[in-house]
From TrEMBL:
Recorded superkingdom: Eukaryota
Subcellular location: Endoplasmic reticulum lumen
Protein's name according to its UniProt entry: Selenoprotein F
Entries under Gene3D superfamilies matching the protein: Sep15/SelM thioredoxin-like domain, active-site redox motif (3.40.30.50)
Family, as annotated: Belongs to the selenoprotein M/F family.
Length: 144
């Protein structure tokens, strides 16, 4: 299913509340739909995305990321626990930060360590998290 965004756009706060902060490009909504097959969610996604201007936009990468989560809520996110315990060491540019009451999210960082994008990952499977990090976080970019 290939779609383009409708004229209606939601505010970034509304999008974050829906969990769509990280789906910045409308092509991501198409990928999302392949997994969830839910037209209402697809519609919400399209209200929160920006059109892909060209292929280079989807190749945006980041120098690092912070996986932010509330330690007390980790029990509800076994996929994220599995990533932290078994896979995190493969991603030296990804740091784990425990913040009280924070939903699981990835905070993507630029070369200066500044936050560029925040992505809610509440319902992500471990393999999707791995695939995303392999695509979006530059290898060997950690300097520490």
């Amino acid at each position: 299913m290939v779609v383009s965004s409708s004229g209606e756009q939601l505010s970034s706060k509304q999008c974050e509340d829906l969990g769509f902060t990280g789906l910045a490009l409308c092509s991501d909504c198409n990928t999302f739909y392949e997994y969830v097959k839910d037209k209402e969610l697809m519609s919400d996604c399209l209200k929160c995305c920006t059109e892909d201007s060209d292929d280079s936009v989807s190749k945006i990468t980041y120098s690092g990321a912070i996986l932010e989560v509330c330690m007390r809520k980790l029990v509800f996110y076994p996929e994220i626990v599995g990533f932290i315990e078994e896979e995190k060491s493969n991603f030296p540019a990804v740091k784990v930060q425990y913040v009280f009451n924070s939903p699981p999210k990835l905070i993507m960082l630029d070369d200066e360590g500044q936050q560029k994008e925040t992505i809610r990952i509440d319902n992500w499977k471990r393999e999707h998290l791995l695939q995303f990090l392999r695509r979006k976080v530059q290898p060997n970019s950690a300097t520490s």
